[in-house]
Design a protein that fits this description.
The protein is of the alpha+beta class and about 270 residues long. Helix content is about 60%, strand content about 20%. It contains eight helices and eight strands, in the order αβββββββααααβααα. Strands 3-2-5 form a three-stranded antiparallel β-sheet. The chain has a three-stranded antiparallel β-sheet with strand order 6-7-8. A hairpin with a 5-residue loop joins strand 6 and strand 7. The protein starts with a helix and ends with a helix.
């Protein structure tokens, strides 16, 4: 009886050891790729408990989550001959675990290298203005360039984003001067437009006052009141230009008779003694 119990205990122990050697746990975000005697089994093991043949099967777990990979900053020359330094970030995930294990040795490293070379290629094909203002299109082009070879590795590129574009200091100063000149140009245009509108209003006001001379006098008095309200010690009184023109027209005719009368009186006074 004791021998039988020992045999049962040994068998139970071997069963436990065999179960421990053959059982594997695959998490929800993982898939298991099984190699039996070096040959790939077609069906990948889903999440849960996966049973293997001890000593025959080998299980490789593949993470199916979206991974974030920063792309190191790449130096390049744009199409308009500007040296820039650009870095990016790639979001990708494995869609075919069998290809990710069999087709490429290290799919994460392979995606990183393709992302770097594709980023340098995009820099050389783009202008500086595109890198600064049209990043959406560049992100799409970069995503297509990386996704094309990655599909053969069972990897899907979810999205690619250009993070930062670093410019040389000389280019930054040039762009700063350009922006300042542009702002100054806009300010001058706005000022000139204001002067043009003001001239139209002044012309309309002058035409209205020309039709009504009393309006000009009222405006003159209003200006005097505004100047006097500031408590100035000196009061500047505008002199109507029309009055000066009137005096210019009237004065020569008024002086001629006066000179003639004076000349005639002198002559008369000179002839009286004779």
């Amino acid at each position: 009886m004791g021998v039988l119990l020992d045999v049962v205990a040994v068998l139970v122990g071997l069963g436990v050891l065999g179960f421990a050697a053959s059982a594997r746990v695959v998490r929800q975000y993982e898939r298991g790729v099984v190699f039996r005697l070096g040959r790939l089994l077609t069906a990948a093991r889903g999440p849960g408990l996966a049973m293997l043949v001890p000593g025959v099967d080998r299980l490789h777990k593949v993470n199916m989550q979206i991974m974030t990979m920063p792309v190191p900053a790449q130096d390049g020359i744009t199409r308009d001959n500007v040296t820039v330094r650009v870095d990016a970030v790639v979001y990708f995930n494995v869609v075919d675990p069998a290809k990710a294990i069999v087709s490429v040795q290290d799919y994460a490293f392979a995606v990183s290298q393709v992302a770097q070379t594709s980023l340098r290629s995009i820099i050389g094909k783009s202008d500086l203005d595109d890198l600064l203002t049209n990043r959406e299109r560049l992100n799409e082009d970069l995503e297509l360039a990386i996704d094309s070879p990655a599909l053969g590795w069972g990897v899907h590129i979810d999205r690619v984003e250009i993070k930062d574009v670093t410019l040389p200091e000389s280019m930054k100063r040039s762009m700063s001067r350009q922006a300042e000149a542009e702002r100054e140009r806009r300010a001058r245009i706005i000022s000139a437009d204001g002067e043009l509108q003001a001239s139209h209003k002044l012309a309309a006001a002058a035409a209205a006052m020309a039709d009504t001379p009393a309006a000009l006098q009222l405006r003159l008095l209003e200006t005097v009141v505004e100047v006097a309200a500031e408590k100035n010690s000196t009061l500047v009184l505008p002199f109507p230009v029309e009055l000066l023109r009137f005096l210019e027209k009237v004065q020569p005719g008024a002086l001629i008779p006066q000179n003639a009368e004076h000349h005639g009186g002198g002559t008369t006074a000179a002839e009286t003694p004779h």
